[in-house]
C-alpha cells in the first residue's frame, strides 16, 4: 500500500464516510418504485441493492478518472482541499436526507471540490470545459432523456398489455421490476462508487502517494464498494418515501418502465465517463412514467422542491467547502476544528431525525405533516390542491350531457373551496361518476 500520512488517512476515512452517505441517500434511486408497488419487501430490496452496488463498483473506472484527473488540476491540489470538499458534500447529503429530498450526491461532491479548489488556488484550478461537458450538460440532459424514455416506455407497456388481465399483468411487471431494480443498483455502483474512488485517488496524488494520472488502486476500489454497499443496505427511508409515494403513484407497469429507462441512461453515461447524477436520472424517469399512464399525475409541489434542491446543490456544497478549506489551511488546529464541526453537525442532524422516524415499517405510509396539511385544506392526501391550471381547465371544459351550466359553475366553486358540498341542483345519472371525483384530481 502507498505511503499514507495522518492527513491522508483522515481524508480517506472522510471520503469513505461520504461514500456511506451516498449509499443510503441514493438507495431510493434503485428501490423506491419497487418498494412502493409492493414488488419486493423493503429490507429484501435494500439488501439486493447493496450486493449489486458492490458488484457494480468493479465494472469500470472511467468515472473515477473524470473525478481524479479531469475536474480540477492535480498539480495545485493539497489534501486539505479534498478534505474540505468532502465536508461540504457530506453535510449537504445529510441535510437533504433529513428533509427527504432526492438531491444529487454526485453534484454535492463536485460542488464541494470546485468550491474548495477555487478557495485554495483560484478559478484557474478548475477545468471549466470538463465541468460543462461532463457535469452541467448531463445534469440537464439526464432527467429529460430518462423522463421521455420512461414516458414512452410506460405508454408502450400499457398498450401492449391492454388485452391482458390486470392481475396477470401486475404480477408479470412486478417480476420485471425486480430485474430492472437490480440493473439500476448495478448501474449505481458502476457510477457512484467510482466517484469516491476518484476522490481518494486524487487525494493520494495530491499527497504524493501516487503518480498523476494513476488508476485507483485495488484497495481503493474494494473499500469504496464496501462503503457504498453498507450505506445502501441501511436504506435512506425518508428519500425512498418521497421517490416512491411523494412524486406520483406508480403501478407495476410504470415502475418497470421508470427503472429500465433510468438504468439504460446511467449505464450509458458510465461507459462514456460522464459523472452523471443517478438521482436526476431516476427522478426524471419516475416523473415520466407517472405521466405515461392515462390519468396519472405528478405532484408538482414536491417536484418543485426537488428542482430547487438540485439547483442549490453545487453552490451550497461549494460554499461550505470553501469555508472549510479556509479554516483547514490554517494548520493542524484548523483541520481538527473542521473535523469537530463535521462530527457535531452529523450528530445534530441525526438527533433531529429521531423526532420523526422513517424506516422499513412505515416507508409506504403517507408523510404525516403533508397529510395533515392536505386534510386541513380539505384535499385528499394523495392529490394536489386545485391550482391555477386546474381551475382554468375546469372553467373551459364543457359540462357533461344533462348538466346545466349552473351546476358546473357550482361544482367548480366547490372544488376551489376544497369542500364536498351538495350540488344546488340534482346531477343527472351520466354525471354521477364526475360528482364523486375528489377536488383537484387529474382526469
From TrEMBL:
Membrane-related topology note: Multi-pass membrane protein
Chain intervals with Low complexity compositional bias? 399-416
Establish whether keyword Transmembrane helix is in the entry: yes
Its domain of life reads: Bacteria
Tell me, what's a Pfam family for it?
A: PHO4
**Residue stretches spanning the membrane:** 6-24, 44-61, 81-101, 108-129, 135-154, 218-240, 307-327, 333-352
**Region: Disordered, residue numbers:** 399-443
Its family remark reads:
Belongs to the inorganic phosphate transporter (PiT) (TC 2.A.20) family.
**How is this protein named in the record?**
Phosphate transporter
Give the species: Streptomyces cavernicola
Amino acid at each position: 500500500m502507498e505511503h499514507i500520512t495522518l492527513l491522508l488517512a483522515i481524508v480517506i476515512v472522510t471520503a469513505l464516510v461520504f461514500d456511506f452517505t451516498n449509499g443510503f441517500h441514493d438507495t431510493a434511486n434503485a428501490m423506491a418504485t419497487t418498494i412502493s408497488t409492493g414488488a419486493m419487501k423493503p429490507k429484501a430490496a435494500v439488501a439486493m441493492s447493496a450486493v449489486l452496488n458492490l458488484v457494480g463498483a468493479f465494472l469500470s473506472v472511467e468515472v473515477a478518472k473524470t473525478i481524479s484527473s479531469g475536474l480540477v488540476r492535480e498539480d495545485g491540489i493539497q489534501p486539505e482541499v479534498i478534505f474540505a470538499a468532502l465536508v461540504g458534500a457530506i453535510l449537504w447529503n445529510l441535510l437533504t436526507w433529513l428533509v427527504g429530498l432526492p438531491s444529487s450526491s454526485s453534484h454535492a461532491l463536485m460542488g464541494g471540490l470546485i468550491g474548495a479548489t477555487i478557495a485554495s488556488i483560484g478559478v484557474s484550478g478548475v477545468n471549466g470545459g470538463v465541468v460543462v461537458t461532463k457535469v452541467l450538460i448531463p445534469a440537464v440532459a439526464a432527467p429529460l432523456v430518462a423522463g421521455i424514455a420512461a414516458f414512452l416506455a410506460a405508454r408502450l407497456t400499457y398498450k401492449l398489455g391492454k388485452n391482458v388481465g390486470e392481475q396477470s399483468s401486475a404480477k408479470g411487471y412486478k417480476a420485471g421490476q425486480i430485474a430492472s431494480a437490480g440493473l439500476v443498483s448495478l448501474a449505481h455502483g458502476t457510477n457512484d462508487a467510482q466517484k469516491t474512488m476518484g476522490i481518494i485517488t486524487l487525494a493520494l496524488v495530491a499527497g504524493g502517494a501516487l503518480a498523476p494520472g494513476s488508476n485507483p488502486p485495488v484497495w481503493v476500489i474494494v473499500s469504496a464498494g464496501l462503503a457504498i454497499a453498507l450505506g445502501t443496505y441501511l436504506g435512506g427511508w425518508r428519500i425512498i418515501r418521497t421517490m416512491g409515494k411523494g412524486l406520483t403513484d406508480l403501478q407495476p407497469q410504470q415502475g418497470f418502465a421508470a427503472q429500465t429507462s433510468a438504468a439504460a441512461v446511467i449505464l450509458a453515461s458510465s461507459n462514456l465517463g460522464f459523472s452523471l447524477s443517478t438521482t436526476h436520472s431516476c427522478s426524471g424517469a419516475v416523473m415520466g412514467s407517472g405521466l405515461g399512464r392515462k390519468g396519472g399525475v405528478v405532484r408538482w409541489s414536491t417536484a418543485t422542491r426537488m428542482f430547487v434542491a438540485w439547483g442549490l446543490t453545487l453552490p451550497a456544497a461549494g460554499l461550505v467547502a470553501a469555508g472549510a478549506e479556509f479554516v483547514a489551511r490554517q494548520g493542524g488546529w484548523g483541520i481538527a476544528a473542521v473535523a469537530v464541526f463535521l462530527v457535531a453537525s452529523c450528530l445534530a442532524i441525526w438527533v433531529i431525525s429521531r423526532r420523526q422516524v422513517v424506516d422499513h415499517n412505515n416507508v409506504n405510509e403517507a408523510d404525516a405533516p403533508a397529510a395533515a396539511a392536505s386534510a386541513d385544506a380539505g384535499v385528499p392526501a394523495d392529490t394536489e390542491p386545485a391550482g391555477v391550471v386546474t381551475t382554468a381547465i375546469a372553467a373551459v371544459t364543457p359540462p357533461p350531457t344533462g348538466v346545466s351550466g349552473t351546476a358546473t359553475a357550482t361544482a367548480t366553486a366547490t372544488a376551489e373551496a376544497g369542500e364536498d358540498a351538495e350540488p344546488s341542483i340534482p346531477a343527472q345519472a351520466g354525471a354521477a361518476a364526475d360528482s364523486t371525483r375528489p377536488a383537484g384530481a387529474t382526469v
